[in-house]
Give the backbone structure.
Amino acid sequence: MTADSGDTPDGPPSDRAALAWLLAATFLVAVAGLVYELIAATASSYLLGDSVRQFSLVIGVFLSSMGLGAWLSRFVGAPVTGFIRAQIALGLIGGFSAPLVFATYAGYGVIGLPLYGALITIGALSGMEIPLLARVLEQIGATAFRFENVLTFDYLGALVASVAFPLLIVPHLGLMSASLAFGCLNLAVAGGSLWMFRDRAGRGTWIAWGIALAVSGAALVQSERMVSALDQALYADDIILAEHTPYQAITVTRFRDRVRLFLDQSIQFDSRDEHRYHEALIHPAMVSVARPRSVLILGGGDGMAAREVLRHDQVETVTLVDLDPRVTELFRDRDDLAALNGGALRDPRVQVINADAWTWLSAPGPAFDVIIADLPDPRNLALSKLYSREFYQLMTQRLAFGGAFVTQAGSPLFARQAFWSIVETLESTPAPTAPGNVLEVTPYHVLVPSFGDWGFALARPDAAPDRPLALPEGLRFLTPDAWLAAQIFDKDTDRVEVELNSIRTHPLAAYYQQGWDYWFD
């Protein structure tokens, strides 16, 4: 960046309006900068999984890029013009960062280069802001200027952005619109600075700002159409619902009578074959208990697991604990989605609690005859803890005498080590009421075409009763013979030596990632 002819070291004397504007600009650009960082981290988590890794990489790259930008700011001879031009560049690059990342992913399956290229550029431009603003304040002769005042407004902006992002920005704007909206915020700061220091800004800067504002404003107005177009490119079927919540991106697609649910772009069910998954998950555990009157479902916000549980006439209460209230609302209140679970979430026997499974289990509460864990795959450390020995110990404390616990355990083919790590973890979980003080575990697997070869683990404090599966009527897949076949593993899926999963070591997330990377990267 070079100086415009009007941007000289000897600027006009300080006035309160200029000082107030520059401090306000510090606050606004801090908000925008952190929002871009959070958008990048969230987008990479949605598209690549492993949120801990992605957030860590994004934060590290962004902060180091800010350091680079702070160093580069020394080469900007005219701080006013340099700050304004940095805001124009941020408005364009930051504003279009999310559309660029999603577009390249939808079109080419590429995310790394556009994501980190934009992130490094945004970080460098953001790193230039505070040094340039401090120089502008000194240049205008702000006698009350103190550098710590600039940092105070900068940190306050970061606080506001970090609180607003999950509570307001993502739920109401989504990542694409948020990116463009905060790009326009940077351009608004550039425009305010142009007006405040209009005696220093050259015509070229005004023209660049006007073009950038027109392009970004038009993109923001059309952002919903852009989102729809990119979503349609990501999914083969028609999108009937797409929302972002503080927890995840929810997408529901339909082709004729076929409905699919995606959370963070990962398929959760396909109505064409979900019965194979849910029947296998629910009924072996239910029929292994003499009187399954009270049932706890962890996850399963789509209500499919609850539908299968309610096939058993002895069930009196079903408690469903799912983190995201929007998922349970959709599958309870929308008639077309509720029809998929047979209206299970509207059944008076079903109580829906929106809470974190770990936190809810940790609190005192009743025991259950059957506990079902229909939780997301252990793609990262936050999810891996829900498959840890510590979590299973909490579960055993809520299991009634003679009860049973079952969890989905991923694919023994695609993530073989992860599957057997879950089994190993369950087998090592202390169970004070068990004869051997540990759980008796039955691993099994079935073919679910949408997922592939999919595995489960049934655990009891005592051995499962040796009797044929007394299944309820109306099942479409599971039979006693299918149950026996499900317990047989071939050489590709049979047991391997693995570590158990605990919150201290967390080998499970690495096993999971390595398995899927081997098959699909």
